[in-house]
């Protein structure tokens, strides 16, 4: 059984990593300045929603590779005064002119340029609508107060930190192809022979974004109309018309960000609350947890060969269902209750082979026909115990690399999350079916998994999530297992090495840090091991009744936790 919270707390002081503590609330995001903006909202008397929305708008300035006005996302909220959970869907939508064969060339094959790097890949942005809707309903502060810091950061500029400088340098070959993006994130110098050359900003230099500041000011003064109508809308539509994109005024004005019922499940007496479709995160997360719950997970230990094998085989079964059944619930039928029912989970568990790896071909019966993501997640806890888990994305780092002239922001390439052609892997190796085909006004299936967990008494406890494409779900699974099952504190739960498997490709991805003995045992069970760069950035917070809050920014990314006091 899971260890009592009190027992877990006693262990925390002896662990290698330690979360940040605050008595007034805490914000954890992928970038320090943005987190400090959220903490400032808490100090002003704002609540978790004010802090989350302010942080998200600030990330659109300080984390241009993922923070955004031109993307979308999901939000899960635990409103402590009501003891009630909410979920908000502001995922991007396909334009009404989109169609099933949008990314196919004349020969019927997938065009990667269309799918990834053209305006055809851009879904109608949802971040602005979603953030404003959430803050208007649940925030205490005014919209102007919440947006003022991001406007100041864009207008006055901020010092480029090493990680951003490195990111911009690596992105130069792609971003420099678009004149607008190039002018936003690079500077021109004169060579000795008198010719001009564009170069990346260096760490320590100042980045000002006056056009983005103006777009933020319009949102601050006019709300959603400041983005989906008027100047910014004209700028977006003019770009689409000039470069063959599909988004028009109708798409912008018709965009909606609905409140939806979160998916919920019980795991070892803890209530797990996450996003429903078009996020695949909540259902797939709960399927994995339910599959492994009856096993003696405590005895298997953290990252032993036995525990990794069990997790891998369970992940593959859940991802098989993800790819077959999930999509946009507004346009397709999804058997949510059946996928999470005891009888169905039992039938899946009966397919687990605890002795050796079951190949993807044996599980799915069909192989694929052919063979840097940047999302960002933030978590907030306020002094009253309200929790926000919020994930937004452009899909790839810097989206499709195309910026809106005069508006100062990049556009997403989220339509690449659709099934471009059944059986052909997408950018994350996911082999999906007709349920997630491109269609007018449809939202593409996502792996974003903002998640809130209540303790055994049903009270506020933990908020987490991550970027990472298809690896988001498995990142969240492992953070929860480390915290709930293995008695690790929040910081150690986040820092522990991760694994990932998603059926196709038929390999087990591993971070560094696992023992050679464990790796050899996994090979003996038939796993094809593939070492990978660090997975995810599970910025997480935890609320302690009468004990304040804890927060941790994932050490895989820049430090980003900020306290309210």
In short:
With 565 residues, the chain is an alpha+beta fold. It folds into three domains: 32-162 and 208-259 and 374-420, no CATH class; 163-207, no CATH class; 264-359 and 447-563, Glutamine Phosphoribosylpyrophosphate, subunit 1, domain 1 (4-Layer Sandwich), CATH 3.60.20.40.
SSE layout:
Elements: H1 5-12, E1 20-22, E2 25-28, H2 32-43, H3 48-62, E3 72-79, E4 84-90, H4 112-117, H5 127-138, H6 143-156, E5 158-159, H7 162-175, H8 179-185, E6 186-190, E7 196-200, E8 206-207, H9 210-222, H10 225-228, H11 230-243, H12 249-254, E9 259-260, E10 263-267, E11 270-274, H13 281-292, H14 297-300, H15 305-325, H16 336-340, H17 342-349, H18 360-364, E12 373-382, E13 387-396, E14 451-454, E15 460-464, H19 472-484, H20 490-495, E16 499-500, E17 508-510, H21 516-524, E18 529-531, E19 540-544, E20 548-552, E21 561-563
Helix percent reads 25-40%
Distance between the termini: 36 Å
Reported for the largest beta sheet, the result is: 7 strands, antiparallel
Q: Would you tell me the structural class of the helices and strands?
A: alpha+beta
Write a structural description.
This protein is 37% helix and 17% strand. It is globular, with a radius of gyration of 22 Å. Strand 6 and strand 7 form a beta hairpin. A seven-stranded antiparallel beta sheet has the order 1-20-19-15-14-11-10. The N terminus is likely disordered. The longest helix is centred in the middle third of the chain and has 21 residues. It has 565 residues and is α+β, with helices and mostly antiparallel strands. The protein has three domains: 230 residues, no CATH class; 45 residues, no CATH class; 213 residues, 4-Layer Sandwich (Glutamine Phosphoribosylpyrophosphate, subunit 1, domain 1), CATH 3.60.20.40.
């Amino acid at each position: 059984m899971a260890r009592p919270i009190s027992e877990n707390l006693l262990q925390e002081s002896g662990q290698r990593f330690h979360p940040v503590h605050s008595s007034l609330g805490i914000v954890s995001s992928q970038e320090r300045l943005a987190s400090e903006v959220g903490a400032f909202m808490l100090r002003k008397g704002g609540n978790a929603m004010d802090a989350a929305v302010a942080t998200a708008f600030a990330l659109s300035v300080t984390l241009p590779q993922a923070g955004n006005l031109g993307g979308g996302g999901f939000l899960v909220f635990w409103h402590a005064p009501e003891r009630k959970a909410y979920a908000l869907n502001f995922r991007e939508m396909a334009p009404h002119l989109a169609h099933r064969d949008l990314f196919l060339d004349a020969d019927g094959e997938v065009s990667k340029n269309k799918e990834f790097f053209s305006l055809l890949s851009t879904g109608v942005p949802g971040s602005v609508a979603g953030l404003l809707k959430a803050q208007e309903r649940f925030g205490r502060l005014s919209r102007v107060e919440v947006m003022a810091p991001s406007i100041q950061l864009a207008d006055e500029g901020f010092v480029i930190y090493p990680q951003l400088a490195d990111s911009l340098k690596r992105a130069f070959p792609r971003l420099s192809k678009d004149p607008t993006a190039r002018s936003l994130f690079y500077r021109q110098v004169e060579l000795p022979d008198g010719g001009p050359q564009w170069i990346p900003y260096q760490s320590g230099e100042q980045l000002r974004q006056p056009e983005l500041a103006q777009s933020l000011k319009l949102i601050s003064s006019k709300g959603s109309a400041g983005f989906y109508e008027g100047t910014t809308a004209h700028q977006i539509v003019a770009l689409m018309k000039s470069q063959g994109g599909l988004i028009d005024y109708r798409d912008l004005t018709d965009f909606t960000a609905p409140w939806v019922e979160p998916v919920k499940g019980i795991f070892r007496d803890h209530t797990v609350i996450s996003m429903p479709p078009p996020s695949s995160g909540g259902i797939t997360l709960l399927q994995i947890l339910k599959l492994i719950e009856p096993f003696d997970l405590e005895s298997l230990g953290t990252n032993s060969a036995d525990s990794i094998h069990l997790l891998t085989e369970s992940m593959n079964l859940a991802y098989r269902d993800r790819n077959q059944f999930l999509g946009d619930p507004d346009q397709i039928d999804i058997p949510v209750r059946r996928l999470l029912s005891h009888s169905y989970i039992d039938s899946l568990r009966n397919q687990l082979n605890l002795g050796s790896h079951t190949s993807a071909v044996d599980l799915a019966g069909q192989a694929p026909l052919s063979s840097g993501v940047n999302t960002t997640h933030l978590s907030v806890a306020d002094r009253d115990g309200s929790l926000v888990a919020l994930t937004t994305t452009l899909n790839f780092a810097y989206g499709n690399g195309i910026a809106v002239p005069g508006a100062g922001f990049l556009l997403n390439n989220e339509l690449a999350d659709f099934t471009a052609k059944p059986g052909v892997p997408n950018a994350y190796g996911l082999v999906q079916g007709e349920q997630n085909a491109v269609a007018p006004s449809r939202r593409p299936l996502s792996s974003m998994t903002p998640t809130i967990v209540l303790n055994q008494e049903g009270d506020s406890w933990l908020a987490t999530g991550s970027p990472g494409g298809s690896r988001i779900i498995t990142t969240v699974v492992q953070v929860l297992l480390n915290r709930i099952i293995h008695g690790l504190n929040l910081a150690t739960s986040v820092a522990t090495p991760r694994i990932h498997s998603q059926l196709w490709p038929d390999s087990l991805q591993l971070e560094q840090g696992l023992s050679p003995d464990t790796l050899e045992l996994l090979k003996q069970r038939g796993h094809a091991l593939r070492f990978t760069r660090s997975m995810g950035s599970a910025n997480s917070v935890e609320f302690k009744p009468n004990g304040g809050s804890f927060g941790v920014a994932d050490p895989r990314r820049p430090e980003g936790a900020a306290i309210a006091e």
